[in-house]
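In the lab's daily routine, each protein ends up as an entry in a very long ledger. A line of letters takes care of the sequence, but it says nothing directly about the fold. The fold becomes a row of whole numbers, each drawn from a learned catalogue of backbone shapes. The protein below has been through that process, and both of its lines are reproduced in full:
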Amino acid sequence: MTLVEETPTTTANKPPAAPTAAREGRRRENLAGYLFMSPWLAGFVLLTAGPMIASLYYAFTDYNLFTPPQWVGFDNFTTMFHDPRWQKSVQVTLTYVVVATPLKLLLALAVALLLAQKRRGQALYRAAFYLPSLIGASVSVGFVWRALFSDHAIVDRTQTVLGLHAGGWIGNPDYVLYALVALTIWQFGAPMVIFLAGLKQVPPELYEAAAIDGAGPLRRFWSITLPTISPVLFFNVLLESIHAFQVFGSAYVVSNTQCGPADATLVYTCYLYQKGFKESQMGFAAAMAWTLVIAVALVTAVLFWSQKKWVHYENETEAAK
């Protein structure tokens, strides 16, 4: 009788059930996550990524909404760089960014320092100062601002009583841009709240130690407050600079849809709107839009490069110790 030697059955070649079930569970979780994200993904593709890619193509074409786009290469860019009104829009926008952004942040930081002190009615003051930012750069605010700075309006009459310059700011090319800057500064609530959050993170013992050493308020602010909140300051500078380059609604409404007088409030986006939607030069407007994107990206890169010299992070300080 021949004995048949049975091969012992091992489970080494069988895939374990637990990892398979875990993979199936992860797959179902990922599928559920993608389903929840699908509205955002569809919106991003259809409303953001798709139009951006299309505008990049139109930037190199002659396109006026009524005829098929024709490829012209870099003609839109060369024409744009030699356009006097385009150069004027760049000048006005840079002036607005350089003047409005620092003043807005200075006022926001000053008010945040005041509101950081414990006092009666603190919540009411914070809400009152933040309220203008809730309104935003809406059309209604633009109309109100235009009424305030027009001829024989409140600002004009106040200046006349004080013996200062009389005449509406809106109709004066030398003053209308500063009326727009004043509107921007007035809405300092958002950076103020961010500064308040940063001030809350400053350790009180640092102020106590500095006061014991004889440091005054200015010295404590310069040596303790500013270095500690420098990441928050950098964030506000970056955010407000980007917003300033994109200003449109307030400039368009305050200047009575003319971006003037004498192109005094011809900010970059206002000229882009005129070229694209009033003159139907969509190819030229797309070239302007991508030039603005590149300019903002360069400014952002410069700010990120400069932060190494003046922004102090807590982990870097601990590592240095």
User: Anything to note?
Assistant: Confidence is low (pLDDT under 50) at residues 1-7, 317-321. DSSP finds 15 helices and two strands in the chain.
